Amino acid sequence: MEKLEQLRILEAGLHIQAVETQYHSLSVNSPEDMEKVRRVLQGEDGNKIQ
Fold this sequence. Notes:
The protein is mainly α. Helices cover 36% and strands 0% of the residues. The chain has helices at residues 5-11, 31-41. The longest helix has 11 residues, at 31-41.
């Protein structure tokens, strides 16, 4: 069984659509990333997400 969500969806015969946006996103792959997201959401690093 695949561990990547996208591959599991494709394996199940479903379709995936991707679109380009103007929004800046943050990935969370570690506890340190989660802390950065918390700081951004609280506006502590000058890059508050709206």
